[in-house]
Amino acid sequence: MEKRISGSTRLLSLIGTPVDHSKSPIMYNYSFQKAGLDYAYLAFDIPVSKVADAIAAIKTFNLRGSNVTMPCKSEVLKYMDDLSPAARMIGAVNTIINEDGKLTGHITDGLGFASNLRDSGVDVAGKKMTIIGAGGAATAIQVQCALDGVKEISIFNIKDDFYEKAKQTIASIKQEVPDCIVHIFDLNDTKKLYEEIATSNILVNATLVGMHPHENETPVKNTSVFRKDLIVTDVVYNPKKTKLLLDAEAAGSKTIGGLGMLLWQGAEAYKLFTGKDMPVSEVKDLYFN
C-alpha cells in the first residue's frame, strides 16, 4: 500500500459506527490498485454526534468522497449541497461525492440489494416481501424493490421516528408505483409479523440485529415460520451467516447474506467515485467467498 501512496493520492472514506469489521477498505483499495488509480480508502468510526465534524473534514482535506454506513445515513442529509433523486426520495445517503467542495449525496443500497438477489437467482417481480426495519438501508430496499416490480411489501418497525418516516416512504411508493401494495406494522406485534411472513415469498432483515458482537440475536424468534419456499435475506454481513440465516437454513429456506449486497452497492459507489466499473468478479472471488 505505502508504495503507491504519493503526494497526489486522493483519499476516500467510510464513516459510521462500528466500522472495524468493514470489508470496504479491502474491496476499494484492491480495485484502485488493480486499475492504477491514485486513491486510498480508509474507515473512520464516527457516531451520529460527530457527523458534522466528519463532513467538515471531507471538505477540509478535499476527500474525493465517502461512504456512509449506519447509523449516520440519515444524519448526513442535512449537510449535503445536493441529492440524487433516489437519496431525496429515500431520505438517506450512503455515498458522498465531493466536486470542488460541493457535496452530493447518493444512495446505492437498494441497487446493491437488488443486484445481490439477481446474482443469487432471485427475481422480486410479482413477489410479496416482508422487511424488518425502516432505516436508511431498509427504505432503499423498499423503494428499489417496488421499482423492480415487487407485488406487495409488509414493513415492520418499532413505533419510533423511523416508523413515522416509513409512512412517507409508503406514500412515495404509492405515487411512483401505484400497483405495489405497501403496509407498515408494529414490530412488537409478533403475531402479525409471523402471519405476514407466512404469506411472503421473501423475508428481509434490514436492521443491525444479529451483527457482531451480538451474533446470538435474531429478529425472528419463532423458527417455525421458516419454510422451504421462503427466501430469507439479511443486510448484516458480519457474521457472514447471522442467527436468522442459520435458523432459516436449518428449516430448508434459501438464504442470502449481506456480503453480496455490500459488494454490489460498493460497485455502484465505485463508479460514482471513479467513473469506472469495479472488477466485481475478481473482488468477489478474492474477498467475498
TrEMBL record:
Q: Which reaction does it catalyse?
A: L-quinate + NAD(+) = 3-dehydroquinate + NADH + H(+); shikimate + NADP(+) = 3-dehydroshikimate + NADPH + H(+); shikimate + NAD(+) = 3-dehydroshikimate + NADH + H(+)
Question: What does the record give as its pathway?
Answer: Aromatic compound metabolism; 3,4-dihydroxybenzoate biosynthesis; 3-dehydroquinate from D-quinate (NAD(+) route); Metabolic intermediate biosynthesis; chorismate biosynthesis; chorismate from D-erythrose 4-phosphate and phosphoenolpyruvate: step 4/7
Which residues take part in binding shikimate? Answer: 22-24, 69, 94, 109, 237, 265
Superkingdom of this protein's organism: Bacteria
Q: Domain named SDH C-terminal: which ranges?
A: 258-284
Could you tell me which residue ranges the Shikimate dehydrogenase substrate binding N-terminal domain spans? 14-96
GO biological process annotations for this chain's record?
A: amino acid biosynthetic process; aromatic amino acid family biosynthetic process; chorismate biosynthetic process; shikimate metabolic process
* Residues the entry annotates as binding NADP(+): 133-137, 235, 258
Which CDD domains would you find in this protein's record? NAD_bind_Shikimate_DH
Q: Which UniProt keywords apply?
A: Amino-acid biosynthesis, Aromatic amino acid biosynthesis, NADP, Oxidoreductase
* Top-rank EC class of the record's enzyme: oxidoreductase
Task: Provide the GO MF annotations for this entry.
Answer: NADP binding; quinate 3-dehydrogenase (NAD+) activity; shikimate 3-dehydrogenase (NADP+) activity
List the InterPro entries.
Aminoacid_DH-like_N_sf, NAD(P)-bd_dom_sf, SDH_C, Shikimate_DH, Shikimate_DH-bd_N, Shikimate_DH_fam
What NCBIfam families does the database record attribute to this sequence?
Answer: aroE, PRK12548.1
Report the sequence similarity comment from the record.
Belongs to the shikimate dehydrogenase family.
Record's function text: Involved in the biosynthesis of the chorismate, which leads to the biosynthesis of aromatic amino acids. Catalyzes the reversible NADPH linked reduction of 3-dehydroshikimate (DHSA) to yield shikimate (SA).
Stated name of the protein: Shikimate dehydrogenase (NADP(+))
